[in-house]
Every structure is written in structure tokens, then in C-alpha cells.
Amino acid sequence: MIRHVAIVGAGFSGTLQAINLLRHGGPRATLIERAARPGLGLAYGAAHPSHVLNVRAANMSAFPDAPDHFVRWLEARGTPDAAGAFVPRLTYGTYLRELLDAARAQAGDRLDIVQGDAVDIVEDGAVAVRLDDGREVAADAAVLAVGNLPPHAPPGLDPDDLSPERYKGDPWEPSVGEGLGDADTVLVIGTGLTMVDVVLMLDARGFAGRIVAISRRGLAPHRHAAAQPWDKLAEKPAASGAKLVRSVRARAEAIGWRNAVDELRPFTQALWAQAGQDDRARFLRHLRPWWDVHRHRLAPQVADRLAALRASGRLTIVAGKTLGFTEDEDGVTVRYRPRGADAADTMLVQRIVNCTGPQGDLLRTSEPLLRTLAQRGAIRPDPEHLGLDVTTAGQVVRADGSASERLFALGPMTRGAFWEIVAVPDIRRQTWDVARRLSNAHWVGGEGL
Ligand SMILES: Cc1cc2nc3c(=O)[nH]c(=O)nc-3n(C[C@H](O)[C@H](O)[C@H](O)COP(=O)(O)OP(=O)(O)OC[C@H]3O[C@@H](n4cnc5c(N)ncnc54)[C@H](O)[C@@H]3O)c2cc1C
Q: 419 CA distance to ligand 1 centroid (A)?
């Protein structure tokens, strides 16, 4: 019988896990979070006021059974016609904090919040979560909601060779935009959504120098556009692999690429689950960069600002691969090979920001908790090394292939099983499902959805 669940990480996934356990009248919960402010996580805690959600408010409710919850919350606070709006991420953080505060006020001693860094979880009939200062939280089950792993160093770059002033390995660190002059050039490595965040933050701080963003293909996220009604797919496409790509292209011709990508959304997890390892590997190798920039789009106001910065020459996006970095008193000389070129080129920059995105391979992580669990065989990477191996019920799979009955995982680290498990609309459903399971509510009636 599970009476007490310890949840490691209080970002969106962990916070909603605790709230959903309480909503289902399930076990008592302890949320363990290393950051000073629980309830925000990386996306909504480290945001700058210039950062807005990349999903319309209508799709950002925290609850799958109350899809207009966030819109109602916004409208009650004076945002008219909020459904189609792309609101600041800090506002979404306030929403999550209020939900957590309300849950805490109602829960009494059924919800505990512990500030601390979990470094191990021992499973032995029950679970014990060990913190780095020696404290221990004993529970009947534990949920890993630790978010993404930090990025790898970019190709050709050894962080130890560059001074901390020049190289920022963590794009969310407050010092990323500090101490720059208008004659400086910032190199952003990576051209996805994290690059967009860093560019907007530099721009909002008044940085008037040049920004160069580089990635192998130089692909940047596309913009959202107002959706036109269309006849959506009624069921999962029968095709997979190359046939699926052809059928999506044909649908894009007929209904526009945004609709062709969006109509796959209800089926993406099932398509991923049925794909063989070869298909998954081919997708990751060849299609992923294109999928990412079409699927994870920019709010129109963000896309407009980025276009203006590119048009004025302040932002340049380069397709190429970095090869080496040499620092002297003027800055860092970066050697890189432009895509398709035989010869390398160089550029002098005064700051480098790593926006290559999260690493997935937990065998290469230096995060103490996951490293310790992996070394002991309590967790293992999924076959594509995107994160943790889990069952569709969220149970972690051990190195010997057995599924744990007491250790669960949520959020982006479960990408290997679900692929489409990064944004709020997918994670809110996952936290709901796992909470129902841990509350034994999944046996009762329907899903209530
Ligand atoms: C910059 C950014 C912007 C995004 N914007 C959107 C958006 O607009 N719309 C959308 O739908 N989705 C968005 N997402 C995606 C999605 O909302 C996030 O991926 C989601 O919030 C993931 O939450 P999480 O709780 O799983 O992870 P995180 O938010 O990373 O939270 C994990 C938490 O665990 C804590 N933690 C980790 N390890 C330990 C440990 N050992 N001990 C204690 N605490 C630990 C961390 O401190 C952190 O607070 C965005 C993601 C990012 C990164």
C-alpha cells in the first residue's frame, strides 16, 4: 500500500504530480527541490520578462480535466480574450506557484516541501531518498521529476580552456548578459528555442553588438500563425518511416505545414511507440532538426523581433560546425567549418553561450542522483539514449530489465518511451495518469476526462 510518495524536483512535472496526488485523495506527498523557490522549474523560474510561452494560453492549463483553467485564471486577473495569447513565462510561473500554494493551504500535513538536493534513492521494500546534507526522506514510492540534463560542451570546446567571463555553459545563468560592450560579438552555439531566449534577453538588456548563432544546419524555429479550420485526421496514420514522411508532405501541400504537423499531435506518442528501433534512429539522425523547428514554434511577437534583428544585421544565423576555440586578451577565436565548405573559417567573439540543448545520455551525466542510480543499475538509459528507460505507466526500468513498482519518472527524461513529452499539454496528462496509479484511482470508473 502506497501511503507516502517522495517527488524529486518541483518544476511543472513534480509540482503537478503532488497536486494531482492530493486531488485524487491519494497518498501524502513530499516534494524535494534543490532551488529556493519550488513550483517553477527551469522553464518558468529562470525566465526573463521578455520570454513568452511558445504555446497559446488555451493549451496551457495545468489540468487535463479542466482545459480552460489557465485561461480562466488569466481572465480573472484582467487579461481579456486570453485563449489565443502568448503570455510571459513569468506569468505562468505565478500561476503554478498559486496552484502549489493553494494545494499546500488545503493539504495540511499531507504535503511537505523540503529544500534539498537528492543524491540517491534506495529501494528496499520501501524507498529512502537521501539528500546531500545527510537528511533522508522515507516513503513508499518515489517519482523522479528532475527535468532535462544540462547540455554537453559544444564540439571542439573544453570549458577548462576558456575563462568563465568568455564561456557561459549554462544559458540561464544571470551573468550571460553581463559585462558586454556594444562593440562585442556574442556567439550562441545552437539555433533552437534556447538561442531565441538568449537573443531576446540580450536585446531586452540593450545589448547593441552582434550576435552570431551557429548550428550544423542553421535551422531556427518557425512562427505560429492563426489556425484555419481543416478536416483533421480521424485516426492514427497507417504509414510509418519514409511512407509517413511522404503522407505528411502530401497533407502539408493540401492543408498547410502547420496543420499537417499539428494534426499528428494526438497520434505522435502512438506512432513513436510502434516505430521500430531502426525507424526511431533514422528519425533522430535525419528528421529531428526539421521536426523540432516545425513542431516547437515561436509566438508571432517573438518571430517578428527575431526577423527584425536578422534584417538589421545584428543577428546572423550560420550553418556550420565549430572546430576549435583559442582565447587571448581580445576574446576567443573560433574556428568553424561552414556547412558545405571544404575549408575552415574563423571569427573573433567576446562571449560564447552554449545553447545546444539538453543532453539525454544519462551514462554521460555528472548529475549525482542519476549517476549513482545508473551505476547501481536502479535505472538505465532508454534504447535511443534520450533519457530514462520507463514503462508506459512511468515505472523506471532497471539495468536487468525489470520494472520498479516503487520508482517512477515523469517529464522530458521519459522521452525515450513517449517522444512527445516535453510541453505542458503532454506532461499534464502524464502526471495525471501516474498520480491516479499511485492513488489506486486508475481502477475506479473511467478517467473522468
Ligand atoms: C526554457 C523553456 C521554455 C519552455 N516553454 C514552454 C512553453 O512555452 N510551453 C510549454 O508547453 N512547454 C514549454 N517548455 C517545456 C515544459 O514546460 C518543460 O519542459 C516542463 O516545464 C518540464 O518540467 P519538469 O518539472 O519536468 O522539469 P524542470 O522544469 O527542469 O524541473 C525540474 C526540477 O527538478 C529540480 N531537481 C533536479 N534534480 C534535482 C535533485 N537531484 N534534487 C532536488 N531537485 C532537483 C530542479 O531544480 C528543477 O526545479 C519549456 C521548457 C523550457 C526549458
A: 16
